[in-house]
UniProtKB/TrEMBL annotation:
<dbReference type="InterPro" id="IPR003961">
    <property type="entry name" value="FN3_dom"/>
</dbReference>
<dbReference type="InterPro" id="IPR036116">
    <property type="entry name" value="FN3_sf"/>
</dbReference>
<dbReference type="InterPro" id="IPR013783">
    <property type="entry name" value="Ig-like_fold"/>
</dbReference>
<protein>
    <recommendedName>
        <fullName>Fibronectin type-III domain-containing protein</fullName>
    </recommendedName>
</protein>
Length: 275
């Protein structure tokens, strides 16, 4: 008697590593999760683990799922006689939302004697749109005038640094890449589409992009952040963090900048005491 293929079995174990969310299985469209082995590689961040079935019911262990996303799962049994049919879809299984994680450091765009222009890129929002950007500039070293210090020699607060809190929608957005450099992006899922939508992109922009999406830089779009009233010949560090409805992210790494030195100020007139 020939061995028969295994029958569908309940979900055993699947591990998804930093996946941007699964779409409900469909009819083979690129945006859908396919149910065939040949298309598994098109699911962004997807990873399957095959485990021996030791009992009719076995618990599965899922780790590193993204917060605030809907997940659907299927499983099938595999034996020496062949592969069985897939089980029914399990889901949607929705994970809880979380605050954003650490973002990329700011990028220096331009610096002059008294101003500095930087660019930031928003990280993945972890299921809740980013509503606030908080930047911090601190003076590290440089020349000081007497009027920039108090009687005890401490630097005045407005000279020592700056802090600004703004909404991302109030920042000037810049698309760095040209249309010619855009390439199709595989593994586009619902979570990725929603993240692009919160930054004002359409679906076409998500599917054709010049940058591969990541947790630290999801859409690739940069936002201009300017600092003014700086001091010539002075070194500064700039960090930033962001917030969604669940809380704040940690501060990013520091961007170190130094303004160009300037000519000395005009001295006061010479006083003649006697001739």
């Amino acid at each position: 008697m020939l061995a028969s293929k295994p029958k569908p079995h309940p979900l055993v174990q699947v591990s998804i590593n930093w996946c941007f969310g699964w779409q409900r299985p469909g009819l083979g469209g690129r945006e859908d999760v396919a149910i065939g082995d040949d298309a598994l590689g098109d699911i962004y961040g997807e990873e399957c683990m095959y485990m021996p079935v030791a009992a009719p019911k076995q618990k599965c262990s899922l780790s590193r799922l993204l917060p605030g996303q809907d997940y659907y799962f299927i499983v099938r049994a595999v034996a020496s006689s062949g592969k069985g049919e897939f089980s029914k879809v399990l889901g949607p299984c929705t994970t809880e939302k979380e605050s954003p994680q650490k973002a990329q450091a700011l990028e220096l765009h331009d610096i002059e004697l008294y101003t500095c222009s930087t660019r930031l890129r928003l990280p993945f929002n972890y299921g809740s749109p980013i509503t606030e950007v908080h930047t911090v500039l601190r003076r590290l070293d440089g020349p000081l005038a007497l009027e920039e210090m108090d009687e005890e020699g401490q630097v005045h607060a407005h000279v020592a640094g700056q802090e600004h809190t703004v909404a991302p929608s109030s920042l000037v957005a810049v698309d760095d890449a040209s249309e010619a450099s855009r390439r199709p992006q595989t593994g586009v899922t619902g979570a990725l589409l929603r993240t692009f939508a919160t930054e004002g992109f359409d679906k076409a922009s998500c599917r054709f992009t010049s940058r591969k999406s990541s947790l630290e830089c999801c859409t690739g779009r940069s936002y201009v952040v300017n600092f003014s009233n700086l001091r010539p010949g002075t070194e500064y560090e700039i960090t930033w963090r962001c917030r969604n409805a669940m809380g704040q992210s940690p501060f990013s790494g520091a961007l170190l900048v130094k303004t160009d030195p300037a000519a000395p100020d005009q001295p006061p007139p010479i006083a003649v005491e006697s001739l």
